[in-house]
Amino acid sequence: MQDFFQKLQGKLWIYLVNLFNKSVDLSVNTWQSLEPMRKTLSDYLVTVSSFFNNILDFCLAALVHIGSYIEKLSSLAGNEYATAKPIVINWSEKNKLAAAAATLLVLLILFFWFWMIRHAKKNEIVWKKTWIFIMISLGPIGAIIYFFLRKLRVEKKQNEHDRVMMSFFTPMHKNEDEVKSE
Known about the structure:
Blueprint: H1 2-33, H2 35-77, H3 79-83, H4 87-94, H5 96-123, H6 128-138, H7 140-169, H8 176-181
Helix pairs in contact: 4-5, 5-6, 5-7, 6-7
């Protein structure tokens, strides 16, 4: 019996060695056959990176050009430009109550946004990371979308629950048509 298992082990070992050699040959041949593609891909990546470098150089030149114009305009405006206040501060000094209301509204929106992100983090099971990503990327609008879709899902579950409970409490001697007519 021991001789049988030793022969079987030897045959399995030979089979595994052949299988390993075939897989190594396949990977080597595949790697060698992809060499022209790798060269093409590297050329493509070099072209793309040089394109992005040119775009960044253009953006830098544009920003320098815009900055020089802003300096010229500020020197032309002189003292008036230095003492001017931003529009929001100027508006908030004139309308203190409206500024307080706008600040409160912004705080409520931010609170709602963080509350919905926290709700998704704690209560979602399947789409947790997706909902959090949507709410962070879309901001409070994503939180509103999440709120209404969650509300629809909860209402659907509640309606289904109510239907099951009503079917449980209907009298057993009446059929559904008689119950609906009442």
